[in-house]
């Protein structure tokens, strides 16, 4: 069984004391491919540096919508230069977040348009962050990108009807530890309905540890609990879920 964690942040300071051990535990436990996600220029450089050290760790570079207001022209030029790095498999995480509104919505949208332009220019898939902004995100994507789109909706948090609209555009859907939480029936319904060839798994580590470890620092090994939960939810086996989601990730990101 080889699982692929399509979204985590191994370069974050929460792992400074034991990063090597975290990666070793993941590989030993069957989580054999990791995509390390950047959230700004310096952060993306750190994400790439970790990917350079480990053959089964890849990177994505982007600007988190929370930080949109801080993105300078120089930052974006440096970030775009990283897109061509051989260990970089995607542009992300990028998108819209209206839950916290840490950056003005018009600034978030302007920067999102920039990244969609990079997607077309560099032909690399998108890793999308969306929270309480699904309407605007769908509108912008429909106006900007040709269908089918290449990318994944990271840490999906809505319902099956919303998911279907992204599926129609060609996107994959990523489910993480939040699906194991109580009172998340709409998310579980979406996971049951997600086509097997569009489903991928993630941790968003160090955040969103699954239910049995909730409140602790998340790590890629814990994705096994999420995979087991999703297998039971979908009436499948963990081995088949692992094989399907890893194959989906390999095709999407060219791993």
Description:
The chain has helices spanning 19-29, 41-53, 73-83, 105-122, 134-144, 160-169, 185-193, 223-233, 238-253, and strands spanning 3-8, 31-37, 57-61, 88-97, 126-131, 151-153, 172-175, 199-201. The protein contains 9 helices and 8 strands. The relative contact order is 0.15. The model has no long low-confidence stretch (mean pLDDT 96). Strand 4 (88-97), helix 4 and strand 5 (126-131) form a beta-alpha-beta unit. With 255 residues, the chain is α/β, with parallel strands linked by helices. It has one domain (3-253): TIM Barrel, CATH 3.20.20.140. Helix 2 runs parallel beside helix 3.
Provide the fold topology.
Blueprint: E1 3-8, H1 19-29, E2 31-37, H2 41-53, E3 57-61, H3 73-83, E4 88-97, H4 105-122, E5 126-131, H5 134-144, E6 151-153, H6 160-169, E7 172-175, H7 185-193, E8 199-201, H8 223-233, H9 238-253
Parallel strand pairs: 1-2, 2-3, 3-4, 4-5, 5-6, 6-7, 7-8
Helix pairs in contact: 2-3, 8-9
Keywords:
alpha/beta, globular, TIM Barrel, 255 residues, eight-stranded parallel β-sheet, 8 strands, single chain
Shape: globular
- The radius of gyration is 17 Å
Question: Numbering strands along the chain, what is their spatial order in the largest sheet?
Answer: 1-2-3-4-5-6-7-8
SSE succession: EHEHEHEHEHEHEHEHH
CATH architecture: Alpha-Beta Barrel
Tally of individual helices: 9
Q: Sheet bearing the most strands, described? A: 8 strands, parallel
CATH class equals Alpha Beta
* Overall number of domains: 1
Summarize model confidence as the mean pLDDT: 96
How many angstroms separate the termini?
A: 17 Å
- Structural class call reads alpha/beta
The counted number of beta strands is: 8
């Amino acid at each position: 069984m080889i699982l692929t964690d399509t979204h985590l942040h191994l370069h974050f300071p929460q792992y400074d004391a034991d990063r090597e051990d975290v990666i070793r535990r993941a590989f030993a436990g069957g989580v054999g491919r990791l995509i390390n996600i950047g959230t700004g220029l310096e952060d993306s450089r750190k994400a790439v540096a970790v990917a350079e050290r480990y053959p089964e760790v890849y990177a994505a570079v982007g600007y988190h919508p929370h930080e949109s207001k801080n993105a300078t022209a120089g930052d974006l030029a440096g970030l775009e230069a990283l897109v061509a790095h051989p260990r970089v498999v995607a542009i992300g995480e990028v998108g819209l977040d209206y839950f916290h509104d840490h950056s003005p919505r018009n600034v978030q949208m302007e920067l999102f348009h920039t990244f969609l332009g990079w997607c077309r220019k560099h032909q690399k898939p998108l890793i999308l962050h969306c929270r309480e902004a699904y309407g605007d995100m769908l509108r912008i994507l429909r106006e900007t990108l040709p269908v089918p789109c290449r990318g994944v909706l990271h840490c999906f948090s809505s319902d099956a009807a919303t998911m279907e609209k992204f599926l129609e555009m060609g996107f994959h859907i990523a489910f993480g530890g939040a699906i194991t939480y109580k009172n998340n029936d709409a998310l579980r319904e979406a996971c049951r309905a997600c086509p097997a060839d569009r489903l991928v798994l993630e941790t968003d580590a160090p955040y969103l540890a699954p239910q049995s470890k909730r409140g602790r620092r998340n790590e890629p090994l814990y994705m096994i609990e999420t995979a087991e939960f999703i297998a039971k939810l979908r009436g499948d086996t963990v081995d088949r879920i692992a094989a399907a989601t890893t194959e989906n990730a390999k095709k999407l990101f060219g791993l």
